[in-house]
Design a protein that fits this description.
globular, 147 residues, alpha/beta, Rossmann fold, five-stranded parallel β-sheet
Length: 147
Amino acid sequence: MTAILFLNGPNLNLLGTRQPEVYGHTTLGDIEQMCRAHAAPKDVRIGFEQSNHEGALIDAIHAARDQYDGIVLNAGAYTHSSVALMDAITSAAVPTIELHLSNVHAREEFRHHSYIARVAVGVICGFGAHGYVLALDAILAHLARRG
């Protein structure tokens, strides 16, 4: 059975109430349910974690080596600042997709740079909560191509 970790960074625990004009009204719990429902008929096991702490995200990426076939990472603001997360993805060698709810390229200039994109197999942004489903399909397609 294929296993995918959805790893969510800082402030994503506030989805649904934090800047709904940017991030929408869907909560992280709603997104988790949507991902589990989409994964079930595909016989895919889902892990879903969130932390506001960079070190906890790094620990989860390291632990994924032995538990997951792929990672979907919404690193939030750490995307634009964390060399440590980039290094963790490289070190763990678990295929990772970078995900954002908003279109970061249509926002402030500092959000246009991503350390994660340098080591991700792909980037999905701007599709709101549905981006998580797109990311699940994308990581599964990537794993199928790898054989």
